[in-house]
Amino acid sequence: MKTKILKINSKKPEKKIIKNVARIMANGGIVAFPTETVYGLGANALDAKSVRKIFKAKGRPSDDPLIVHISEKSEMYELAKEVPEKAEKLIKKFWPGPLTVVLKKKKIVPNITTGNLDTVAIRMPKHLVAIALIKELGKPIAAPSANSFGNPSPTKAQHVLEDLEGKIPLILDSGQTKIGVESTVMDFSQKKPMLLRPGKVTLEQIEKEIGKIKVHSLVKKEFRKNHLKEAAKSPGLKYRHYAPKAEIIIVQGTEKKTAAKIQELLKKFSAKKIGILSFSGKTYNKNTKKIGSTGEKIAKNLFKSFREFDKTKTELIIAESIPEKEIGLAVMNRLKKAAAKIIKAGK
């Protein structure tokens, strides 16, 4: 299979292109398309045979649930049994946008789409290409990130091609995505709402709207095998995600102690090709990437930087840390899920 990249206008998607792509999906095909967070790999969410193609193309475990994308709020009620009041409040505030809600599902949603769970994860994207495609298809679209499973999520069409060339027929290209990390996931299928995955819609913003919520115990922890023994209601909980080929070490501490520890690690691992993710603006070596000093800029460039390090055959990435507040919680969540080790500077 030859994979084609097709340019599309993000502000005014060409109707002819959208119609042709929707036709591919209506006939059971899968297509990569842009959202405001990362590029997604989409199929008709209600067609089990089509959805299985997503898992095959990505090499994704079948118990890792997909997020179902809709174009109108009314579509949510066709997929979910009930929508709690607090979920409605967040939806009113943040949809369309990078917020996913997990709800009890109706039978119309195939088990393959939800990882064999009795819940479904739903969001309404804020990207005109994604919305136009869902509307034209006339069905919700199941779409995880359009990458090989476990790799850094794609924020450009070229990233999708690097992972999935020959495995999918088409990639819609509208340039780099705006946010750069996946959506916030909130679980409303239990009595008490819980944050399963942080994103652009922050914990602080959520609690301002609906009061104090629970945060899943793994949100702030690095990935370890068998951390989660039960079924995962959200991507990013059960398996290692977002990881480049290079090993990642995160250094946490004050700016001064972090800088000293990184210098120490550069000497210790001098035989390796080392890349540095610098959020402080410091230059540590020739392979230092200064990807931003604010959470928003870091989030936008994080996965892109991972892929750039891989292209230069970097063996070890040492990353500074940022405070786990606002979108910084999402940045550190992605770093920790990709990291091999976290070192406390000064210890």
How many individual domains? Answer: 2
Oligomeric state of shown chains: single chain
Distance between the termini: 52 Å
CATH superfamily assignment of the largest domain? DHBP synthase
Shape: globular
CATH topology of the largest domain: DHBP synthase
General description of the model:
- The protein has 347 residues and is of the alpha/beta class.
- It folds into 2 domains: 4-215, DHBP synthase; 247-344, Rossmann fold (3-Layer(aba) Sandwich).
- Helix content is 31%, strand content 18%.
- The protein is built from 10 helices and 16 strands.
- It has helices at residues 15-26, 48-58, 74-79, 85-94, 128-137, 157-164, 203-210, 255-268, 295-311, 328-338, and strands at residues 4-7, 31-33, 40-44, 67-69, 99-104, 119-123, 141-142, 170-173, 184-187, 194-197, 214-215, 247-252, 274-278, 288-290, 316-319, 341-344.
- The strands form 2 sheets. It has an 11-stranded mixed sheet, with helices on both faces.
- The N and C termini lie far apart (52 Å).
- The model has no long low-confidence stretch (mean pLDDT 94).
